[in-house]
Amino acid sequence: MKLIYKLLVVLLGVSFWTCEQPLDINIDRADPQIIVQSNFSENHVLQVVVQKTEEFSSNFFTTIITNAVVQVYDGETFIETLELIQVLDDESIPPYYQSVFFTPSVGIAYTIKVEVPGFESIFATSAIPMGANLGDVSFNNQTESIEGGLESISFEVGMGFDDPKGIANYYHILFIQEVTAYQINLQGDTILENTTIIDPQNLQIDPINGDITMIKFTDNRSFLINDEFFDGQQISIPFKGKFIYDPNKFILKPFKVEFRTVTRDYYLYHTSFAKNSQSGSDPFSGPVVIHNNVKGGSGLFSGYDTTITEFDITN
Amino acid sequence: MKQNYLFTFLFSIFSFLLHAQSTLEVTLDFNVENLSLEDALFELIDQSEVNITFNNDLLPSNKTFNLRLQNASVGTILKELLKGTNLSFRTIENQIAIFERKNVRPQRKFIISGFIENAESGERIIGAGVYDNKTKIGVYSNEYGFFSLTLPEGEVELTAAYLGYQNFSDTLQLTSNTLINLSLQPTYLQEIVVQEKNDTLIIATPDLNTDIFSIENVQKMPSLGGESDVIRMVHLMPGIQVGSDGVGGISVRGGDVDQNLFLLDGVPVYNPYHAIGIYSIFNSNAIRSAKLIRGPFPAKYGGRISSVLDIQTKEGNMKESQVEMDLGLTSLKLSVQGPLKKDKSSFFISGRQALFQLYSVPISTRIREADGNDGFISYSFFDLNIKVNQKLSEKDHLYASYYKGSDSFVDNNGLEFFSQPDTTVFFIDDEEIFWGNEIASLRWNHVFNQKLFANTTFMLSRYFYEAQNKVSIQVQKDGDPVASRAGFIKSESNNRDLSGKIDFDYQLNENHFIEFGLNAIYHRFQLILIQLDERVFPMQTTLDTIGNSDRNSLDSYEFDTYVQDNWNLGEKWNANIGLRVSAMGNFNKTYYSLQPRFQIAYTPNPIWAFSAAAGRMTQHLHLLSPSNNISGLPKDLWVNSTDKVKPQQSWQFVIGLQKKFRGNIELKLDGYYKYVDNLINFNNVSLDNELNSKNWDSQVFEGRGWSYGSELFLQKQGTKFLAWISYTLSWSKRQFSEEINRGRAYPFRLDRRHNFNTAFLYKLNEKIEFSANWLYASGSALTYPTQSAWYYLPQTQDFPYQTIFSYNIANSKNNARFKPYHRLDLALNLNFKVRKLHYLLKLGVYNTYVRLNPVYADFNEQFSPEIGIEREEKQVSLLPIFPSLRLHIRFL
Predict the structure, then answer these.
(1) A236 lies in the same domain as A100
(2) A59: domain range?
(3) FRET partner for B590 with CA separation of 20 to 30 A, picked from A214, B32, B45, B372?
(4) Does A21 reside within a domain?
């Protein structure tokens, strides 16, 4: 799409005129709405983020709602009202609502009810799907010292799973490399600091062959897959990747491969974001319409089944 | 002049018919008692003052009449008087003759066939009408100028007519099958720009969906940069919707932009555009004829489901050499044609070179210099048409034609990004992109006999895209290079069609003209081949390399056969009934389709015509467009249907009427409904990434579309001018699976509610012509955000939600509309001759009143702590005004 821009620039130049004007279109500006986002898995507390959209023409960022009442139900049976959690020392983590006691189980349809003053009540229902059988997961790596004291880790991951036959299944495969910052004090002691996920710009991973279509997730290190074209088959997917880190500043944590069996809503919601992020450079496309499974607002409330396999990086 | 001949011809026939009717339709009160037939006839002559001739010997002498008729016509009275006798009557000029009926043997019929050609150049004329004045039976010549006409034995008053030529008329005695070649003398400076078949000839056709363009006159209409373009004339027809200034292709009756069949000498063209649709690849200096069928098209056409634009290039003058040159601000054109052997073989060569690089290189160089960088941007395109034809015998003719056209884009960008007193590091990024079409065909015409004509064609059509990105880093110390590192990414895609077909025309009798044929195509689509130098791109990986081409090759075959009958059902009814059967396979899956096509026309009188048409069309190919259904982009990736992606199918229904008014005014009105199934919507993932022949079909979503509307075309022709208005009222919708717009229906990008075009051509005298057109269309649809929010990554085991980015929300696809598109174009043509040169100086202005019609919308976002988010929302227009100056020189 970069080429289209350039071609248009050339043609603009040929016509000797500047042709940009303020936007003048006919459009129905929708009223602000409440967006709910929640992904939940077995034996983990339920976490829900609630926000109010901002008009596109506004100068303000979207408001995170902190005065909402968020309740969870099992069918029509009330379970619990979630409490607000605010992480003060990390701006990247928004305030969110979290269950105190409740942890979901597989196969039960849960409903959340979100009430925000000035807006209609919002409802959404979802369940944790049955997870597919994950087979062996293999991992091997090679480490190479490169310029600037950095280390380049090349790795290959092999994973296989049995896709249940006859039902539509959706998967999310994540590759997580955490690093813990450290310092050595004057006494020679190692002082451990924050643990973070390695910067996505420094980690590249792709499937080795393109036989199975997958959507690269917005985090650039995970993939969404649906089984439309391999229903009921035993699937094996090899990946190849590389990341760079500074061993003088960080300690590598184990490399994690997370295999999630997700709902159709989870898949559609996050793939629509992936498509949205990739259509930005196309002047003719415009934003992608985001999937929604929330009544009275928009967003996602969806369960997932997860299996995490960890590997130590060998040097 | 040609129009005068045509209308004189029309007028004489109509006058004759009207007079004949008036003689028999004179009414009177007729009362006779006990009169013989002879006396009764004389009484009728006296009362009606109609001249009736008869032979007394034929009249019965023993019969008397008592007859009382009030307000009866002469014809009715004669029928009563001659009832019970073996006498009949007929009108001859302004008289009525009574004659004795005899038992005659059935009249024998013979065939007149042959070719119609340009008397000056020897080129065959497509779509010319051949007509017998006595029987009012006529046909059109086919794509190779061949006609076949079945007529009763006896005197034939043969007339041939075609737009831009003097009528040919001759009387001959038809006593056996006759082969005759008709030469039409061209006339110049015609008044008519666009003429539809029904107007060109007297015979009625059911085809209200076909427009035939006079190329000579297309060149007189306003054009962009003085670059006459037949596709810009197509834009003015009803039912045609286009993007702003032509960007992104055309939609015909609400169809997708990939559903139009562009034929160049019978060969399908994949990307008929230069400059993202602003220009077409069809060099007007090389075009002989252009025909647009808005569908449902006859069974002989297939492979697409919305429309056909059939372009035939010039064959070359068989009589004498001819050179034409054309120089404008945007391009240079040169055409040479002439006989290789007089009246036996000829050649035609035409080339066009765009001149955009003359402007883009210095402008971009200065811009980059101002930014402290080296380099430039260059854009250009060229077209080359070559054709050779050889008359092998009176019955055999061979044509070879070749076309190549390409766009080139070069972005040479040198950036100094690190500089110390003695060390400088340069980063050089050179991008070169080429894309275009290459077409070759070999055609053999053979006349088996007066009834049967065949054309055999072998074709090659290729669309290619090649991109190279060379990146290098160079370190200089004290001005001398001391280190460098370079690498490149190369990607390319190719569409190749290898095909052969044979088409037959068979004149079964005067009522049945049958066309049938076979077509076979082998498609090979190579989606993306990437070669990557990993030394320079250590973080990049790639799935495909040039050495691994098998996974990128998408191969398939198509077989089609068709038969259609143009059937005269009496004087007032005509039908075209056809069936096309196609099979397409990709070695895993084979699709079959039956495609019935049906058209019928009722012409109760020369003033009115009514028609209806229906047809099912199948398209096995799809265009992968990551944009909102845009074609003409450099990387137009075509794919065939697979076991996962089914062929596109459409049904289209049209009803229409046509009325001719006094003063050469003609009205056409029709309504249509089109339904398309198995449309695809490509995942909004860049075509550059991870796409190959094995996985593309899992990245598309299937859906359907429907459109309906009404079209009006009003044309007025005068001796010195032509004007027309076209108006379209239409709706076009799409609906895909849940992944697209949550499964809801939404308006198509080119769903313009109203489309109004008007064109005007006025010839002041033999030297000066003036033309203008004005276009108005409701705004096209776009998807634009209305709200914004934060997007959070789903939490992981150890990390809760984390913000990734603020995203913009559109509540529905194509939820907004640009303001209406309109513009006025003007042109002034000055013709003059100096010695042996004929000059045509074209002055023009495109978008005269500087209407800033948007092509796309965009916005920039910036954040500051004081203000927050600042968004600059803008729309970008392409051609605010474009004056043109062009000189065309023909060496006489």
Answers:
(1) no
(2) 34-126
(3) A214
(4) no
User: Rounded CA gap, B328 and B884, in Å?
Assistant: 7
Q: How far apart are the CA of A24 and the nearest CA of chain B, in angstroms?
A: 7
Q: For residues A285 and A143, state if they share a domain.
A: yes
Q: Which residue among B788, B802, B816 places its CB closest to the CB of A92?
A: B802
Beta carbon pairs, A and B, within 8 Å? 284
Q: In angstroms, what separates the C-alpha of A103 from chain B's closest C-alpha?
A: 14
- Beta carbons of A210 and B792 less than 8 Å apart: no
Residue A67 in contact with partner chain B when CB distance is under 8 A: no
| Residue A302 and residue A158 share a domain | yes
Final residue of a structural domain among A71, A95, A126: A126
For every residue of B228-276, DSSP letters joined together read: --HHHHHTTSTTEEE-GGGTT-EEETT--TT-EEEEETTEE-S--EEGG
Contact residues on chain B for A62, CB-CB shorter than 8 A = 788-790, 806
Query: Could you tell me which residues are beta bridge partners of residue B339?
Result: B346
Nearest-angstrom CA–CA distance, A69 and A116: 7
User: Does ipTM top 0.90?
Assistant: no
Distance CA B52, CA B30 (A): 16
Residues A181 and A284 in one domain: yes
Q: Do the beta carbons of residue A85 and residue A97 sit within 8 Å? A: yes
Give domain status of residue A4, yes or no.
no
Whether A215 and B685 lie within 8 Å, measured CB to CB: yes
The residue out of A126, A145, A178 marking a domain boundary is A126
Q: Length of chain B in residues, anyone? A: 892
Chain A: closest CA distance from residue B866 (Å): 10
Q: Does A7 touch chain B (CB under 8 A)?
A: yes
> Any chain B CB within 8 A of the CB of A180?
no
User: In A, which residues are within 8 Å of B859 by CB distance?
Assistant: 23
Using a CB-CB cut-off of 8 Å, the residues of chain B touching A304 are: 794
Distance (Å, whole) CA B489 – CA B540: 11
**Do A292 and A220 fall within a single domain?**
yes
Cα B837 to the center of its chain, rounded Å: 32
Q: Residue B635 and residue B435: Cα distance in Å, rounded? A: 8
- CB distance from A157 to chain B under 8 Å? no
Q: Which residue matches tokens 């499974």? A: A293
Chain B positions touching A49 (Cβ under 8 A) are 792, 801
Q: Do B628 and A284 touch (CB under 8 A)?
A: yes
Non-local CB neighbours of B499 within 8 Å, separated by 6+ positions? B458, B459, B460, B461, B519, B520, B521, B522
User: How many angstroms separate the CA atoms of B412 and B391, rounded?
Assistant: 50
> Quick count: other Cβ atoms within 10 Å of Cβ A45?
16
Nearest to B411 among A6, A60, A266 (CB): A6
Q: Do B878 and A209 touch (CB under 8 A)?
A: no
A250 with A299, same domain? yes
Please list the pLDDT of chain A residue by residue as tens digits (315 residues). Answer: 455 556 655 655 555 444 788 999 999 877 889 999 999 999 899 999 999 998 888 877 788 899 999 999 998 899 999 999 988 777 777 889 999 999 999 999 999 999 999 999 999 999 999 999 998 899 999 888 887 788 889 999 999 999 999 889 999 999 988 889 998 888 888 888 888 888 767 788 888 876 777 888 877 788 999 888 888 999 898 999 888 888 888 888 899 999 999 999 999 998 888 888 776 667 777 888 999 999 999 999 999 999 999 998 865
Neighbours of B858 (CB within 10 A): 16
Helix, strand or coil for residue A242? strand
Q: Which residue of A has its CA nearest to B686?
A: A278
**Same-domain check for residues A198 and A306:** yes
Same domain, A147 and A264: yes
- The shortest C-alpha distance from B244 to chain A (Å) reads 12
Q: How many domains does chain A have?
A: 2
